[in-house]
Specification:
By secondary structure, this protein is α+β, with helices and mostly antiparallel strands. The protein has 7 helices and 11 strands.
């Protein structure tokens, strides 16, 4: 495992068989200190030594995890570490919180996601920013009914059925957008909330934008009826959704 000194030492990204060098994701971001990185990783090339090689702490919670879960964690934390270096000039470990949320170093707000062979990280040093990103492979037919039951509300179904991107892609987008909203609000709310806490208000495929409206109060800061814009991008077999709002914009919601 890496030493404490190794965790604090910026390193130059070295290409290896496990993970390609990160590239800036082609998404719209607010002005200011924002970074969004994406990188593909190869599960077959994963090995536990990768944690030490790249200065990522191996958490106790991964002790019994299968290699796929370890690989996903390493890819996400390695990308998050790189985002922190680019924003601050200093490397730092991204620990795990009590509800398995990433704990970012002081002054940094970020979000990590992975799906299939892709990891993404969105981060900023903007004060009071809302940050959430999620990437999902398109839902397989075998999982569609379960996601419908878990993720959707009755009033959302007409919008999903009428979407020009197709019902399955729209459902995947909704699932992903609600994940991004959770990641953005959880650090402020400090408590778990489920998919029923927000409802799809609109889905504009041409603009790559949808709106989620809270259906219940989340603490004292966020009230039922508040609307959150979510941006999205659709690829052939994958969707990505994100919330990236500077503090002044977030405060105006």
């Amino acid at each position: 495992m890496p030493s404490p000194a190794a965790l604090d030492r910026p390193t130059t990204w070295q290409a290896d068989a496990f993970m390609a060098p990160p590239e800036p994701a082609a998404i719209a971001l607010p002005p200011g200190p924002w970074v969004c990185l994406a990188s593909r990783f190869e599960l077959a090339a994963y090995h536990d030594d990768g944690f030490a090689d790249f200065g990522v702490a191996f958490p106790d919670s991964l002790g019994r995890a299968v290699p796929k879960r370890r690989a996903e964690f390493l890819a996400g934390r390695r990308l998050g570490r790189e985002a922190v270096v680019r924003l601050t000039g200093h490397a730092a470990d991204i620990a795990i919180g009590p509800q398995r949320e990433p704990l970012w170093p002081g002054g940094v707000r970020g979000s990590i996601s992975h799906s299939g062979d892709l990891a993404v990280c969105l981060a900023t040093t903007a004060a009071d920013a809302l940050v959430g990103i999620d990437v999902e492979n398109l839902l397989a037919a075998s999982g569609r009914e379960a996601v419908l039951r878990m993720c959707t509300r009755d009033e959302e179904l007409p919008l999903l059925n009428a979407s020009p991107v197709g019902e399955n892609t729209a459902l995947t987008l909704l699932f992903s957008a609600k994940e991004a909203l959770f990641k953005a609000l959880f650090p402020r709310v400090g408590a778990y909330f489920d998919f029923q806490a927000a409802s799809l208000g609109e889905l504009d495929a041409a603009a790559g934008r949808l709106t989620l409206t809270l259906t219940e109060d989340l603490g004292r800061a966020y009230r039922a009826g508040q609307r959150f814009p979510v941006r999205f991008a659709v690829e052939a077999a994958r969707v990505m959704t994100w919330i990236a709002m500077n503090g002044d914009e977030a405060a105006s919601l």
